[in-house]
Amino acid sequence: MTFSPHSGARFEISDELLSAYVDGQVTAAERQRVEEAVAAAPEVAQRLHGLQMTVALLRQASPAPVPRAFVLSEQQVLASGGRVAGARAPSFFTRLLDALTPIMPLATAAVAAVLVLAVGLATWPRQNVYELASAPQEIALAPAPAGEMERAGPPPQATVVVEMAVEAAPADGPATPAEDQEAAVAGGEAVTETAMAAMAAPEPIPTPTPAPAEGEGEERAIQSRVIEESPTTLRVFAPTPTPAEEQDAAMAAQEAITETAMAAKAAPEPTPPPPPASVEEENAAVAAEEGITETAMAAQIAPETAPAAEENLPALTEEDAAGAAQPAAEEDARPAARLRPLIYGLVGLLALMMATTLLLRRRSAR
Amino acid sequence: MIDEQKLVAAAQGGDLPAFNQLVLHYQGLAYNVAYRVMGTQDGAADATQDAFLKAYKGLHSFRGGHFKSWLLRIVTNTCYDHLRALKRRPTTDLEDLLVDPDHSWRVLDPAEGPAEHAERLELGDLLQWAIAQLPPDQRAVVVLSDIQGLSYEEISEVMDTSLGTVKSRLSRARAKLRHSLQARQELLPPQYRLTDGFPS
């Protein structure tokens, strides 16, 4: 609505009325009102003139030539789901091809992306293990062989298995598996004591004592093996020991070993009925777990004892690292082996889809 | 002169050639409306083709009346759909699309002198630009009324709105066009310049 202050409310003419007046779409009364306002008020006349010029300009617009005929083909109508009299509906195969044509390139790209992902997954873990195995200045504790892992049940975070090769006394006869297990448990405790002793008495012992003669027949070797059963590598950082420290620590360890052997020997009495094998294994695992914790603490807190541990460990560690590298590689090659059928399948599918895409493209070009 | 009712009845029974005769008769009107609303030749061609396909498939819903108005309603609604789709995934500036530099009407008419040809091109571009400034509903009304010359009643049938709505939309559209053209009046032919006696 427009109001002219010069001409007064009498000549209030809206744009809508003026527009309708230009088109002749007004009643007789409206026409008379507009004409009176135009005659009396120059501003209304100017607005009307501007509107007339605008409409005249628009009517000057050239019609756009039609670029092509828009007649519909039978195929066009049928493809859009329409119906044509006398026309045969397209076959299921034709409709399937029509539906596949737009999505096939995208689906092919998606399969190619999955293939790349699968190849990446198959190659990644092996590289990771090699990097870890070659890390310097660390005692890399390789995973136990699969058999040992199975015996130990679900793997704890880190386990120290202390193997004690104790020859039983002749009177005792050959050791039964239960006795072996008990010996292992005792051995684990002995190692713990060893570590505690090393912590409690860090003073150097003057002369290293060779292996005691009296225990020669009863114990041949005590081996401590630190085996990491979890996928992560347990790293024990130890400062490089001096020769004196090595001797001291070796002596302390030897004393502890002797005590252990004696303790193992001093318990030949018949033991209570052995628990089931699985319980024994659990006990062994628990004892060994405690052992590793304490051993690791001892190695970190009392550096003097580290050489002793290292005396036993280097051979074992190298042996284990070498021996465990093979199962580790095999273990990590498993994802690749598992993914291999998938990768082969994806390659085949990708080839098939690419061929189909090319055929569909040729078909639509025709 | 075609027998529109007969052709429509035949097309409703699935007679595609009969419908194509209607297409040939109305394609100029449909394409021009689409071109002015869409602003580009390609956009107009797509919308027109799509509208004819929709019309053929929806012929069963045509219950008589003016086939032209019914067809133009489908054309304008299809143009709105295409414009909405363009807004959702714009590839270029919509305003730039609305002035098509490659439109075939730029071809030189042998009966037209170079000066007239240039003037016609300038005026066509200016009008298309001014129409593109309008919202789609006002654009359609002004195209149907001032370019295609439809009556208010026909426009109200095409737009499926009341006469009052048509009047107000047309009035608003013309007012906006007047201001747009006034802003570029130096490009207008002298007889159409709006400065003389026109309030600023």
In short:
The complex is a heterodimer of chains A (366) and B (200). With 366 residues, chain A is mainly alpha-helical. Chain A has ten helices and two strands; from the N terminus they run H-H-H-H-H-H-E-H-E-H-H-H.
Please provide a written account of the structure.
The complex is a heterodimer of chains A (about 375) and B (about 200). Chain A is mainly α and about 375 residues long. Helix content of chain A is about 60%, strand content about 5%. Chain A is built from ten helices and two strands; from the N terminus they run ααααααβαβααα. In chain A, strands 1-2 form a two-stranded antiparallel ribbon. In chain A, α7 runs antiparallel to α8. The N terminus of chain A is likely disordered. In chain B, α2 packs across α4 and α3 packs across α4. Chain B is globular, with a radius of gyration of 18 Å. Chain B starts with a helix and ends in a 17-residue tail after the last helix. Chains A and B meet through α1, α3 and α4 of A and α2, α3, α6, α7 and α9 of B.
